[in-house]
Amino acid sequence: MKYQNLFYSSLLAASITLASCSAIQQGSQPQPQTMAAVQLSEIGEVEGISEYRLNNGLQVLLFPDQTKETVTVNVTYRVGSKHENYGETGMAHLLEHMVFKGSPKHQDIPAELSSHGARPNGTTWTDRTNYYETFSASEENIDWALSMEADRMVNSFIAKKDLDSEMTVVRNEFESGENSAFRVTLKRLMAAAFSWHNYGKSTIGARSDLENVPIDRLQAFYKNYYQPDNATLIIAGKFEPKAMLDKVKKNFGVIAKPERELKPLYTSEPAQDGEKRVVVRRVGDAQMMISAYHVPAGSHPDYAAIDILTAILADTPRGRLHKKIVKAKLASRTYGFSFQWAEPGLLMFAAEVDKQDNLEATAKAINNLVENIKQQPITEQEVERAKRQLSKNFEQRFNSSEAIALELSEWLGMGDWRLMFLNRDRLEKVTSADVQRVAEQYLQRNNRTTGLFFPTDKPAKVDIPKVASIAAMLDGYQGRAKVAAGELFDPSFDNIDKRSKNFSLSNGIKVSLLAKKTRGESVVLNINFNQGNETALLGKGDIADAVGAMLARGSSKFNRDQLKDELDKLKSSASFYGSAVNAGVNAKSKRSELSDLLDLVAHVLNEPRFDQAEFNQYKATAKVDIEQNLQNPQSLAFNEYRRRHGNFDSNHPYYTPTFKEALDIVAALKLSDLKPFHHQFYGSSDGQITLIGDFDVPAVRQQLETLFGQQKSPTDYQRIDRAYFQLPVQDSQFDTPDKENATFVATLALPVNDSHPDAPALQLGNYIFGGGFLNSRMATRLRQQDGLSYGAGSFLRLGAKDQRTTFGAYAIFAPQNLGKVKRGFQEEMTKMLEKGFTDKEVEQAKSGLLQSSRVSRSQDNELATQLNSNLFLQRDMGWSKDYEARLAKLSAKDVQAVMRKYFSLNKFSYIVGGDLAKTK
Predict the structure, then answer these.
(1) What is the CATH number of the domain that holds 758?
(2) Distance (Å, rounded) from C-alpha 52 to C-alpha 35?
(3) What is the pTM of this model?
(4) Can you spell out the DSSP letters for 873-889?
(5) Is 309 part of any domain?
(6) Which domain holds residue 688?
(7) What is the mean pLDDT of residues 191-199?
(8) What is the mean pLDDT of residues 722-747?
């Protein structure tokens, strides 16, 4: 359960937010309402999302989508880290963990989530906290989810015994964030940027507060904010609105409206009157800089122009920072993002710099670039390009009801869910003059946090405008016409096989087309070409990786910027990839643009540019990426895991190098090697193409034949086997001084594949042991019971064509707890082998796995991946149907017998990464 950011979640995953003050009131809770007293009012509707309100204050948003076989339930509370008081930092996030501990009607929430095959999580941010689960659309699942969310809204245990164990889990999450140079630097910068407002405090909180917060203060915080009048229930997916509203009234309507009154927060950040500077010195292998500028709240009219300004400056590869900083070799990577919050936040620009280069020179160059836009005005072309990109992103998100259900939490945190649509409208109206104005207004030295304070004769303060009234801003807002709805699609194995059209192109490439009406007329495309053979590929694995990375960096017709422009014009996205043994693309588009997208994809795969400047940037970025892993205990441990299961010579295409070897490999790469590799291996006639969505089958079939049906690689394809071998029992340790978080991995190899009679039992046994959501044996022991690890579990990688499977168990933890973590794993493994599983565990696991599989088949991108794999393996969905039928028949005794057949403590190898001095 990570606390979430708005834009750069992949970078910030776990360490960025803040806290403010709260009016905590305790008292007797009002009595529940009778059903007769429950009232539900219809408020309005915008673009398919309908708003209702119960008389206890609960806001309800319904977003029916019959194209999905799933339902997403998302409860958002208008409380985040900014509401925390002195000594309470991290309380909102800690409470998020505690709410998973159970309630009177739902005493083991993790087990229920797993047994219903749900995809759940909870996230905490500055202005809001939310809990959600996506599950297969059935009446039983819907009733369960609504009952659970209603009960834990006001009846969660929030018990002292749970706090004692969960506090150490959250502390471990805190420690894992301390391993990241980016998160640590950003946390220090935020604290400097905000002198008074709680946005300057990290959402995860201070370690001392986490370790010492009294249970009564946590309970008071819960009772104050977790109430229907401070929450929004969002339901999206396949359901009938009237019946859903009846269920909402039954489960949530009877909750009494609280008698307490929430006091508004009033602390605001004064205008900054001089640049600030923060310096962090820690062990690491790459340099980083971040510059932050105060900007208005996310609801302010200026924010649309700020979004576009961010894209113009920070997009890769079309942004000014990339062109002026990365191409000038002042940084290996640049990026930018903003925190779109309920109150004035920050716009940031960052760069990663090789440790041998001059970080001060890079910081100076970036600050000069962003603060001197008056000398290099924003162009209309830049604005239109950014608008196309942001518009495409919005449209693609809106094609997924699940994505919108989660996105709405952010806008609710800002003040009103309709802001999502209003912000889209504002984006479309932004002009170059608007962007120029906000750039000159906010990107000033005295509004920047990266420098020192210097006296000045004429101090220049940047006053951040306030939003007077969101309600007035949205008064009468109607939105636009609803997005085109799709058909009701049954994701059963039989129906998928029935609806799929499978055939081969003239040269043998296999194709699977599943045409159906989809929301927004969306289409998902997967193309995978198999290439080469073991003899031809020896010594060329590193070249192959570089060729794959260069595909998206330009073609014979388009440079890197222009290629992204073309995708934005087509309102499409495409992710190209390439390795020694395959190459291809995963893409999303819509019916009207699909033909042009297919032409573009074929062109990029067949005619990459291999530009020298782009190649140099690729090498520089790859070097810094590798260097950042040199002292990362998790990266080191899992890289060693991959190496253990490789058993290949260093010139083999499957070889996994050490990070130090990888640095030498990158340094030795030559552009002159890339074109010959592409000519020798690309254009394969052995491959798979899958499309799912709204398209014309005959037209697509003809176009695929024209684009790909005649190609033939000069080198014949022959699959390289990965034969099973017994993994030597050998332990490894990687010392990473000054890292507060360590990683433990236990692993072995098994001589089976997914067609083996024992495969279903192995999958089920692993799910119970370490694969379920929070309630697996590993998670229950190391997280819930012992409070040692934020993340603990196991994974099973079943081979398909090879009679080979890998198993791994893992945990992250404070290094001084290594002995306890290892002992916990060994004791749970011994318990599993000696006593097996209970009938209840097995039945719940089967339910969870089978429902999770159905949810996966309801997601077009995941189904496309499965159909593509089926083409390669020469299977249909009937194979999966038979597999799941075998899994459904398993008993607890069956599972124990198979686990005992393959698992033994003396077969495991252990890999540890961390500060070894602390493990003693």
Answers:
(1) 3.30.830.10
(2) 17
(3) 0.84
(4) HT--HHHHHHHHHHHHT
(5) yes
(6) 493-708
(7) 92
(8) 94
